Amino acid sequence: MLRETLSVVRDLPRLQEIASVLIRYGWGDAVRILGLSHILERAGRLLHWQTTNEITQLDLPVRIRLALTDLGPTFVKLGQVLATRVDMFPPAWIEEFEKLHNRVPAVPFELVRPALERAFGGDIDQACASFEREAFAAASIAQVHRAALKDGTPVVVKVRRPDIVPKIEADLRILTHFARLVELEMPESRRYHPVQIVQQLRRSLMRELDLIKEARNIDRFASNFAGDETVRVPRVHWQYCSEEVNVQDELQGVPGSDLAAARAAGLDLGLLAARGGDAVLKMILLDGYFHADPHPGNVIYLPGNVVGMIDFGMVGRLTERRREQLIDFLNALVLKDAEGMLNVLTVWAGDAEVDEEKLAYDIDELVFSYDNLSLKDIQIGPLLSEITALMRENNLALPPDLTLLFKALITLEGLGRQLTPEFHMVDHIEPFIKEVYARRFTPGALAKRARHGLREVMDVVMGLPRDLARLFRQARRGSLRIDLDLKRLDHFGLQLNQAANRLTMGILTGSLVIGSSIIMTVPDAPAGLSFLGQLGFFLAFANSVWILYSIWRSGKD
């Protein structure tokens, strides 16, 4: 608690900025919910201002995008992370988040010169044959300069902005605090795990801040595509790389966004689409390590219809088990297998409460709507969007690694269809499904799965004595606790009460029958005693009728 209080005090100036921007775009209620108006005098005053009509007339997603843009690189990156959460937001929101870009003016060369000289081991002009002082691309975290090494190799040099790390760390502290408050004040938000989203943002930003990690990503992709003449990944010049600087070969070709130039260069757009699609699907389905942002700005078309890929700051990783689930899911999509899709989605839902009957019905309806279409007419992007909308309606959230993947698949299909309308993602997915299934059932793969299964069983068996000993110790100390989550507890209590009443009346009825029988069989009984026996039989009969009636009514209810 003390640490959080100190961090809030340290970040007060930035909190003032954030509160001011939120209020400017009509988010005064959010400022109140987050408690900022109580600790920030300026925010408290601003809450009395009226947001301009021009801003209030804007759609809510637009206002959020503008606010994130004004708040700077960390919040822009947050918007880009949210753009991958197609399971959380409808298409209109995703479209706005996708407009967020972190293009900003480059800082003067003299401010980044110290970092460059540390990386190159001295004066830039001595280390390079040429070095362009003017950055040709600049983002919120780093900017990129063209240069040539002493041997004439054309390279691009990415250098991190000075003093960016403390600013981002402060924003991340604040966002973590906000996420905890949102989970506390808005229970319905918990299924989307706001704190986990901020943690995902932190990991993403920390990776981007360390340019060595991007260099490692490049090397990994280069290794995965070694020997493939259809795909090119830049070569990293490790002797000049550091956390602040990344030096790699410049891929000189046609930018992926300039289709007219690609046609003028005589490139085959259909072949480029096929090769690009196959490359990304290989990353996802075979390698489990993929470029998470394959948009046209990160693609270069090279002579010979070679696809070049750049900017590996945002990558995704899939475990072997997740890839198997994904293959099963894509196979169900291709086969229009509603039950197969349901099985995988319920696994992805994890511990979330799922109305499986409703989910099954919704999936069946979705599959039925595609039933009359041939495979080549099915677009994966819109289909995935419908599936994520279906998950939102059923209060389900995708695991973070899959949100990045779904977004990459949707972006990839858009890129392919931009090159040629004849690009059909399903046609490219099918061969990979067959290859993965063939690999899955090789003797080596089966033996590996058997070893894993045996190890899991042995872990359970070996851990059983320890777990039992812990259980008995807790029982002896009286600290053994069993948590029961009883749904509809009130209804359960009512049923228990009714059962107790019936049991009591049943015992009473039995007692009356036995007592009356004894009275009626007493020889030479006093006058009136037989009447009491008859009365007992009558009351027993009445109780029996009541018990039978109550049981019949409960069955009706």
From TrEMBL:
Residues that span the membrane, as ranges: 528-552
Domain (ABC1 atypical kinase-like) ranges: 99-344
Keywords: Membrane, Transmembrane, Transmembrane helix
SUPFAM superfamilies per record: Protein kinase-like (PK-like)
Keyword Ligase: no
Any Pfam family hit: ABC1
Entry annotated with the keyword Membrane: yes
Family: Belongs to the protein kinase superfamily. ADCK protein kinase family.
PANTHER family from the UniProt entry: CHAPERONE-ACTIVITY OF BC1 COMPLEX CABC1 -RELATED, PROTEIN ACTIVITY OF BC1 COMPLEX KINASE 7, CHLOROPLASTIC
Protein name: 2-octaprenylphenol hydroxylase
Species for this entry: Sulfuritortus calidifontis
